């Protein structure tokens, strides 16, 4: 396998290259984090009761960040999971968890309770 | 019952496949059985403890505890795998040459077993705690659930069995190519775990998505399918990755390759380090990072 590193002759040069690349990655991450922290989110609460989401359909405005509070009133834990939203979080029995949803395009985003997938189904409707 | 079996099967499979790769990577090293069994046992104990504190962990660090813990465990595993491959880039050739000369495994007690045992224990810890919570939920939701519990146990056995099969498959690789193949598998596994970690860091709000969906191959190969799941665990396949995940994947791949190159020294390390393996050193084993 030939890489850009082959062009760098000495060990020192290679180490210097690694150092520069690391700094660049750190700078990109810092910049991105600052952006993410900018906007004020819209809050929605979804209750889990008897292994079902209430409401099962959550409406939110498009292009706005959302704070999704999952209130698990069942005694058993549930794993809130959405492949569409790229979220995955365990919510213990009788407790709440908060999820951050980035501004979304209009559309429907499905989510499930992975531990009770037959009944725990819902969707985020963005409009 | 089938649903329960499937959930537990998925969780178990991920841990089992990682343990299988780690077992492959530690093949022939004296005392590895004890180390890896210890790692898995520690993982199981940790998983039960973690499940017990799930609520507390979730609520900590402003509700980001769970994400940070997951990302931390994943990145620690990535670091251990990187260390393993770097170590192999220095000592691997000697080992491979010895293995070829004697035609079978060699016993050497010098490989970084502690790192591999930690990787095994992290995998069991993460997936195990979810399994424990799920099973607890089943047990707690009352009577008439013995079928569900049996399903859970069935899933556990199924996942472990598939992991064992993969390990047996690894052992079928010819001895002279074995180390190179395992090195590549460890590399891809590490990159995939890093991409997973990026997902949790995103969820914690610590990194931006960059691009919310780089590609969508869910129609071609869904990540939820059997093959998709296997590829997701083994090489980090994702049918709808975020930009940041692709960046983490590529950066990890590049960083480990670079580390192997820097630590492993020059372009032809075989010639410099072939002492004790002269007759076979010329048929160089291709390892990742060594052209």
What would you say this structure looks like, in words?
The complex is a heterodimer of chains A (127) and B (291). Chain A is α+β, with helices and mostly antiparallel strands. In chain A, 20% of the residues lie in helices and 41% in strands. In chain A, a hairpin with a 2-residue loop joins β1 (42-49) and β2. The longest helix of chain A is centred in the first third of the chain and has 26 residues, at 11-36. Chain B is an all-alpha fold and 291 residues long. Helix content of chain B is 73%, strand content 0%. Chain B has a single domain (2-272), classed as Growth Hormone, Chain: A. In chain B, 49% of the residues are buried. Classes of the chains: A alpha+beta (127), B mainly alpha (291). The A-B interface holds A 1-3, 5-6, 11, 14-15, 17-18, 21, 25, 28-29, 32-33, 35-37, 75-79, 83, 86-93, 95, 97-100, 102, 114-118 and B 3, 7, 54-55, 58-59, 63, 66-67, 130, 133-134, 136-137, 140-141, 199, 202-203, 205-210, 212, 223-224, 240, 242, 244, 247, 251, 254-255, 257-259, 261-262, 265, 267, 288-291.
Key phrases:
heterodimer; A: 127 residues; alpha+beta; five-stranded mixed beta sheet; four-stranded mixed beta sheet; B: 291 residues; mainly alpha; Growth Hormone, Chain: A; 10 helices; globular
Short description:
Chain A has one helix and nine strands; from the N terminus they run H-E-E-E-E-E-E-E-E-E. By secondary structure, chain A is α+β, with helices and mostly antiparallel strands. In chain A, a hairpin with a 2-residue loop joins strand 1 and strand 2 (52-54).
């Amino acid at each position: 396998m030939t890489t850009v590193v082959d062009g760098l002759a000495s060990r020192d040069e290679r180490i210097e290259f690694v150092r520069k690349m690391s700094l660049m990655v750190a700078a990109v991450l810092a910049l991105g984090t600052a952006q993410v922290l900018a906007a004020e989110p819209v809050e929605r609460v979804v209750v889990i009761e008897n292994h079902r989401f209430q409401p099962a359909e959550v409406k939110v405005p498009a292009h706005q960040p959302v704070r999704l509070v999952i209130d698990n009133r069942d005694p058993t834990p549930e794993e809130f999971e959405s492949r569409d939203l790229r979220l995955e979080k365990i919510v213990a029995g009788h407790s709440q968890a908060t999820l951050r949803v980035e501004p979304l395009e209009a559309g429907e985003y499905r989510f499930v309770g992975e531990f009770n997938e037959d009944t725990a189904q819902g969707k985020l409707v963005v409009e | 019952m089938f649903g329960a079996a499937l959930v537990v099967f998925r969780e178990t499979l991920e841990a089992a496949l990682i343990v299988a790769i780690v077992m492959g990577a530690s093949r022939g090293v004296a005392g590895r059985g004890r180390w890896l069994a210890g790692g898995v046992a520690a993982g199981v104990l940790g998983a039960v403890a973690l499940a017990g504190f799930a609520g507390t962990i979730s609520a900590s660090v402003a509700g980001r505890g769970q994400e940070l813990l997951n990302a931390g465990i994943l990145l620690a595993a990535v670091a251990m795998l990187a260390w393993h491959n770097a170590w192999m880039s220095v000592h691997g050739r000697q080992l491979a040459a010895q293995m070829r000369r004697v035609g079978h495994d060699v016993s050497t007690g010098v490989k970084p077993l502690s790192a591999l045992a930690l990787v095994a224990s992290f995998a069991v810890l993460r997936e195990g705690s979810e399994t424990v919570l799920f099973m607890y939920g089943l047990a707690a939701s009352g009577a008439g659930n013995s079928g569900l519990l049996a399903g859970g146990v069935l899933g556990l056995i199924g996942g472990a069995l598939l992991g064992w099969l993969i390990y047996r498959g690894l052992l079928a690789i010819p001895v002279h190519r074995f180390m190179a193949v395992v090195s590549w598998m460890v590399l891809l596994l590490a990159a995939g775990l890093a991409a997973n970690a990026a997902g949790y860091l995103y969820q914690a709000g610590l990194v931006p998505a960059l691009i919310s969906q780089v590609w969508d191959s869910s129609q071609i190969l869904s990540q939820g399918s059997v093959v998709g799941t296997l590829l997701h665990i083994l090489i980090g396949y994702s049918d709808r990755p975020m930009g940041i995940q692709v960046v983490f994947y590529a950066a990890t791949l590049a960083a480990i390759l670079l580390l192997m190159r820097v630590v492993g020294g020059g372009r032809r390390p075989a010639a410099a380090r072939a002492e004790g393996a002269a007759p076979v050193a010329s048929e160089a084993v291709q390892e990742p990072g060594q052209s």
